[in-house]
Amino acid sequence: GAWTVSVDVIDEEGDVTVGTGEVVVLNRAPEVLIEAPMQVEARSKATVRVVEAYDNDTVSPAGQDVLFQWSGVVCEEGSASDRCTFSPSDEGLTVVTLTATDDDGASTVVNVTVEATNIAPTLDTISLFRNGTEVPILDGWVVDEDEPIGLLVQADDTPNDLSSLAVLWDLSDLVDGLEEGTVGPVSSIETSWPVSGTHRVTVQAIDDDGVASSALEADVVVRNVAPTIEGLDPTVAIYEDELLKISVNVDDTASDLLNLTTCWDLDARIDTDNDGGSTNDCDVEGVTLEQIWSDAGTRLLTAFVVDDDGATASINTTLTIVNLRPTAVITSPTNLSNLMEGDFVNLSAMDSLDTESDLITLTYLWDTDALDGAIDSTTSILQLENLAPGTYSVNLTVTDDDGATHTMNVQLVVAEAPTNNPIAWAVEEFGMITTIVIGVLGVVILGLVSMLVIGRRGAEEALVETKSTSMWDQAPVAATFDAAVPAALPPATPAPMAPMPDMNAQPVAAAPAPAPVQTGPPLPASGLPPGWTMEQWAFYGEKWLETNAPAAPAPAPQPAASTDLSNLLDGLDL
């Protein structure tokens, strides 16, 4: 301020002189010394304090001579204290300002810089959600295999690091590959566990400087879910040797579906694996069973499924295997509708019907009144020989291994062989080959004889023909020389195997003419057998006499023809 200064000058005599002057005194600003840390971790406390502060020209009482004011931060002690404690929220430099003012109003400003260094992020507790509802941890979390579960954790860090925080989840210490990650302060994930057991969940947050938080851990108990099986009817029925094809539907959690084992126990009476369980043998593996049974009866079929944890589910069905009754079938290579006396017949049961496994065990029983005895054969072939005329019943009964039977009946009608048919009689007596040879020779001889007769008659000879109802019974008559033109001879048409003529026809008497020379055995007293001709008698007559009339008297000689057979044969040089 301005001060007035007076000076009194007094000499030795006591004279006084007063001199007055004004002195202006300038104020001096206070002096302040503070101290502060150079670095602190962000969000940790830093204290800046006044070490020394004084005002040399103050006249104020101590403690009131200099006043302090802090700015730039929020001080825990307030802004007018001689110290300032604050916590920097962000990484980086923080400037703290102190203004010191003396009692004259003069101020001194002091600044100090504190560096806030990076800190590790932090994590809050883990939360678990089921269907959007938080599940309290209590004694631990328990979930099912493959059950969708939500996990959430809150991370914290300095504001400049929050948006770039990486939150990493390791969801299991039992299964590799169960990791998740998010970016940001709030980490929320959806997950599930494919394997039963207690899984340790670990989560960490890492900032952009690579500084990680402490690991946060929690245990999750995962329960196995047993598989399910369905799709079988309570009862099933099939025939023997019929293919049974049935399937079941199995289900489980998604992770277990590929590891399910489905088996069929085909007989509850047998413990194949000797484990004491009668319905858990894996006789056939797969969801579809294709099986054939050859024996009739009832069986309990069990289908069961096993997951990778050994949990099982099963379903049963009662299978009834029905015996199919056999069907008797009689076949024969012989035409059974045209049987003749003396025929040989083979009857076969080989075409009888049954299931494949029963066919090889079928038993056969033949019964026919054509043979003596109640049981005529037990083989698959019945042979009947030299059948006598009549009607016969043949029964075939087939029986399978379960005792089921079936019977088929056929009627055999055997016609009587015609005894007045010389060709049939000759075949029966001499055999087919011999009869054919004799017939062919007869035709050749008759043809040669006819040619010789025609050659001897000359151009003017006339023949008189006497017709007969028999195509074989034709005899030449004496020539009449009054005829201008000779009559032509009928063609020679006899054949040993040709159809027989009418057996009831009688030969017509020939016109008076020389009797032909008798060939072959003598005719019986009753004449030619009905339906026979002389040519046939010449070849077969002797055998007929031996069979039918061995003691019959010889017939009267027949009139000889103008030219006998011996002369004709001589003319042919035979």
Work out the number of β strands.
34
Q: Strand portion, in percent?
A: 35-45%
- Note poorly predicted spans: 458-516, 549-574
Number of helical regions: 7
Q: Give the averaged pLDDT, no decimals.
A: 81
Q: Mind describing the biggest β-sheet?
A: 5 strands, antiparallel
Fraction of residues in H or I helices = 10-25%
Describe the structure.
This protein is mainly beta. The protein has 5 domains: 31-117, Immunoglobulin-like (Sandwich); 122-223, Immunoglobulins (Immunoglobulin-like, Sandwich), CATH 2.60.40; 228-322, Immunoglobulin-like (Sandwich), CATH 2.60.40.10; 339-415, Immunoglobulin-like, CATH 2.60.40.10; 422-571, no CATH class. It is 12% helix and 36% strand. The chain has 7 helices and 34 strands. β1 (2-10) and β2 (16-24) form a beta hairpin. The chain is rod-shaped, with a radius of gyration of 70 Å.
Supply the key terms.
Immunoglobulin-like, five-stranded antiparallel sheet, mainly beta, 34 strands, five-stranded mixed sheet, disordered C terminus, rod-shaped, 5 domains, 12% helix, 574 residues
Topology readout:
Elements: E1 2-10, E2 16-24, E3 31-35, E4 39-41, E5 46-54, E6 66-71, E7 83-86, E8 92-102, E9 107-117, E10 122-123, E11 127-130, E12 133-135, E13 141-144, E14 149-156, H1 159-162, E15 166-170, E16 179-183, E17 186-191, E18 197-206, E19 216-223, E20 228-230, E21 235-239, E22 243-247, E23 249-251, H2 254-257, E24 261-265, E25 284-285, E26 288-292, E27 297-306, E28 312-322, E29 339-340, E30 345-348, H3 356-359, E31 363-368, E32 381-384, E33 390-399, E34 405-415, H4 422-430, H5 432-457, H6 534-548, H7 565-571
Parallel strand pairs: 4-9, 13-19, 21-28, 29-34
Antiparallel strand pairs: 1-2, 3-5, 5-7, 6-8, 8-9, 10-14, 11-12, 11-14, 14-17, 15-16, 15-18, 18-19, 20-23, 22-26, 24-25, 24-27, 27-28, 30-32, 31-33, 33-34
Helix pairs in contact: 4-5
